[in-house]
Description:
Distance between the termini: 35 Å
Radius of gyration: 15 Å
CATH topology: Beta Polymerase, domain 2
Largest sheet: 7 strands, mixed
Order of helices and strands: HEHEHEEEHEEHH
CATH architecture: 2-Layer Sandwich
Shape: globular
Number of helices: 6
CATH class: Alpha Beta
Structural class: alpha/beta
Amino acid sequence: MDARPILFTLARVLDEEGLEVVMIGNAAAALHGAPVTTLDFDFLFRKTPAHLRKLKAVAKSLGAMLLRPYYPASDLFRIERDEDSLHVDFMSRIDGVRSWEALRSRASRIEFGGHALMLADLADMIRSKRAAGRPRDLAVLEILERALHEKKKIENDKT
């Protein structure tokens, strides 16, 4: 599956609605070069009344539904669109990350059609997956750690 059209659309709509997010999860790891696959997109956002209104506007702009799944009880908000199985999760907290500001300060910017998405630092994603400790998170740790090592090696070779 080519995720670029979806990423272009997400970047545009998030920008137009003014919802500041940081992409986390396997889709973000793949954009960092990790050889992982996923069928959904995960974002961290600050849960405020204004941001919740913007999140509702994002769902409306995408022609999707905003859901509040409670498994387990969490601050998860999910945007789903049946016609193409679009599935986007927005969380206000993740394991292993102390604050939105800290995660945001280490995030990198990637452009999609003139609209930017912020990607969580790969080290933060590794820390979060390790802290979560779920089997599906632990299963990709070695892959993400290898990708981080390769990324650092490439950066060091440039200097």
